[in-house]
Amino acid sequence: MAYVIGVDVGGTFTDAVLDDDAGNIVAAKAPSTPPDYSQGVMDVLGVLAEQLGMPVEEMLANTHHIAHGTTSSLNALVMGNVPPVGFLTTAGHRDSIFIMNVEGRYLGGSPDQLQNVLGQSKDHGLIPKRHALEVVERIDRDGTVVVALDEESVRTAVRTLLDADVKAIAVSLLWSFKNPAHEQRIREIVHEIDPEMFVSLSSEVSPRIREFARNSTTVMSAQIGPGLRDYLGSLEGRLRAQGLAGPLLVMQSNGGAIAAAEAPATAISTVGSVLTGGVVGAVSLGEQLGHKNIISTDVGGTTFLVGLVVDGEPVRTSSTIINHHPINVPTLEVHAIGSGGGAIAWLDKGGNLQVGPRSAQSVPGPACYDAGGTEPTNTDANLVLGILPESGLLGGRKALNVEAAREAIRKNIAEPLGLSVEDAAAAIYAIQNAQTGDLLRKTVVETGHDPRDFVLYAFGGAGPAYCGFYSAEVGVKECIVPLGPVASAFSAYGLASSDIVLASELSDPGPMPFDPARAMENFRSLEDQVRAALERQGLDFESIELVRSLDLRYTAQLAEVAVEVPAGELDEAAMVQVMADFEQRYAELFGEGTGFSAAGVQAITFRVRGTGVLPFSPALPQVEPAADPDPSVALHATRKVCLDPRLGYVDTPVYDYRKLRAGHRIAGPAIIEVPTTTVVVPPDMTGTVDHLGNLTITTRN
After folding, report:
1. Which residue, 50, 75, 142, 660, shows the most beta carbons closer than 10 Å to its own?
2. The Hydantoinase/oxoprolinase N-terminal domain covers which part of the protein (predicted)?
3. Residue 551's beta-bridge partner residues?
4. Which domains does the chain have, with CATH numbers?
């Protein structure tokens, strides 16, 4: 028996899903354990082993691999909890990291923040100026050495940084993506002086044109590299000591995994790892259900995440923004707001009720956890409204205190607003549904898609409690709640479903149609890099799939659009077709007539994405069919639940999911209790259990 395990470490809970080669799937959940998240990983593995009825050592000894998604990198960057880092660049260009190409003053800011000019903070620097030093060298745009590297200036700068007690050094020289020789020599010199110093090279982390984005990407990778190396090293050591035989893999932002030993070298590629697991899981489940267009929504303890799958492929982007800095990381496009189950409800200065983005997380947690939390959260409101059972979460293993929840809402929300506790809880629930609906609208409608063409998948510990309302908010007619053995651990299921995905890229600007011979040379070099990197993962693949793409733009414009490039030999006709594909895609994204062909088209960055297909692809097992649609056999209880403040508390049937079978139909309003989550079927909607145990919520006709 061989197992594959996916582990999703969130801010509140750590989820795990185990799949074996016989088609069985087991899921588990345990509280996350900041600051040492590895303990939460070991805890949830213990819960898995308990369900299998075997020691952890035996389970790990039979594990093919573990795919791990972690928030540690992203959280460290967002909160600024990173060690001091040094920065080396070409003489005369040190201040580019502080000038920030001007755009760093506004990137990532919301419209209301940008309009409040006087209230904006301009202190977005990544590192203090004393840690940014210059070295003498110069390479031109063709990769030709104009000024040789002055190694003595390098040694002087390195010693200065070491005396400042930096924990890593980022190196980003002009045009190094065309010729990395000087950067590579600087790393050698650093290691001659201090063999243990972590060094991040822009030619390896971000070989793209544009100085500011390349610099910021390299610096951030250096900031999180040592911590990621230490965390993964410690976790892998604990797993090996417990008998893990297979490799530990780490999820990347691009939707694929990489060996833990390889991840720190390009640490920045892991920043979105925990965000993408759900999208990968949605693709896998969509293949089983025949869905090509999917809105993937994940409401965990801390965040609400939305990603899109269009025509069976997740929507990708070549960059993202963190702390006002552009980051060159190929990633699945996932939008997030701080609106999870642990999101704190509060009153702003105008007395308006807000929910999030601050979260109670797992420590101290919502007030009803009785672990020291005193501020009201979405979870507290759901408990007061009757949505959550007073018997507790996780099948009763996580006790809930309804009086503590009521007191938190009374003190912080109800009394200041002159409301009853029940009305205040209903207001919190309504705001949560409204703001999650707003993010859906931004993600789907504002990118040119019609929500009516999509099926919505809802998961996470809190997602099923809200999905019926927020899917209806944007006009989606069908909402799938993946239940069965994965339930709220669906992101971990996505991790277990992931293959190894690696990407290499290179900026080589030139006018289109690009010289086919030069394009082939670039793509062959990138394909060789990807194949070599896949070989280093230490895994046997069923197959290797390579996909070429090229970023293009209209001359004198900044907006770049990626288009796929066909495999095989390229000729002039192929490059003309690539240019035509770009113009069509540009029109789809920005509107017909917005392109300007007369200005010409430029090729910017060549990219190859390689997928090493693993022999495991977890498929949800089928469930036993029901004798008839009547679900009364699963009726567990009836309790008063408030889903609509206009209706107040209504006697609502509560069903035990474990007794439901394929074909059972549940008329709303209704509650379905699953050991790891709670599903709400709103009034005027119907929930139907499908052949895989998922619940499909549809609006009544």
Report:
1. 660
2. 5-193
3. 562, 605
4. 77-230 (3.40.50), 343-430 (no CATH), 500-613 (3.30.1490)
